[in-house]
């Protein structure tokens, strides 16, 4: 059974640019959530989607957005990148929007 | 406001001994707690969980203890193995939060051979 797949794994952008990250959940999983990991901050919740609807949103500015498609694949977008957006962005999926999450390997974004 | 805290950034133990990782929370609405393990360059992987209706859950070498009155949980690994060296994250949720987990900052466990 294939795990959660995130692309790209690594990317470098400059301030002011935008970025789109992609996540393919485990087959059969309809819930996708996104987390940001920075050193010393643990994992911070960004948003959660279930059946193409955003169910929850974390305390991030409006520059951070996401969506989920009918096949449960999800994308997140960060516009007008800032240096502080440099982080590991993790996608997680679950069959239902509760309980145990299965994480991908993450997309490491560096903003210069 | 850090609702889940892991006060020890790092822990070092000898192989074969017990590793005890601690986690404190402040939100009394949390009713489900999980531990995840993360190796470098990999995503976190689920380890063990506990519901607030229990005070202990065991899975092989891993046991999680929950003290609701103290808002404290701990993960015990016995015996510790070098392959257990990783960052361990404590996480919590409540019945309304869905997949929104609140994570601690993580504890780097190093098990020395």
Order of helices and strands of chain A: EEEEEEEEEEE
Number of DSSP E strands of chain B: 11
Radius of gyration of chain A: 13 Å
Largest interface: A-B, 28 and 24 residues
- What summary fits the major beta sheet of chain A? 7 strands, mixed
Whole-Å distance between the termini of chain A?
Answer: 37 Å
Helix content of chain A: under 10%
Query: Structural class of the secondary elements of chain A?
Result: mainly beta
Number of distinct helices of chain A: 0
| Binned strand content of chain A | over 45%
Number of strands of chain A: 11
Radius of gyration of chain B: 13 Å
- The total of helices of chain B stands at 0
> What series of H and E elements makes up the topology of chain B?
EEEEEEEEEEE
Globular, elongated, flat, extended or rod-shaped: what is the shape of chain A? globular
The main pleated sheet of chain B reads as:
6 strands, mixed
Shape of chain B: globular
Describe the structure.
The complex is a heterodimer of chains A (112) and B (113). By secondary structure, chain A is mostly beta strands. In chain A, 0% of the residues lie in helices and 54% in strands. In chain A, the strands form two sheets. In chain A, strands 2, 4, 5, 6, 9, 10 and 11 form a seven-stranded mixed beta sheet that branches. Chain A has a four-stranded antiparallel beta sheet with strand order 1-3-8-7, with no helix packed on it. Chain A starts with a strand and ends with a strand. In chain A, 37% of the residues are buried. Chain B is mostly beta strands. Chain B has strands at residues 4-5, 10-14, 19-25, 32-38, 45-51, 56-59, 62-67, 72-77, 86-93, 102-103, 107-112. In chain B, strands 2, 4, 5, 9, 10 and 11 form a six-stranded mixed beta sheet that branches. In chain B, strand 9 (86-93) and strand 10 (102-103) form a beta hairpin. Chain B is globular and about 40 Å long. The mean pLDDT of chain B is 94. Classes of the chains: A mainly beta (112), B mainly beta (113).
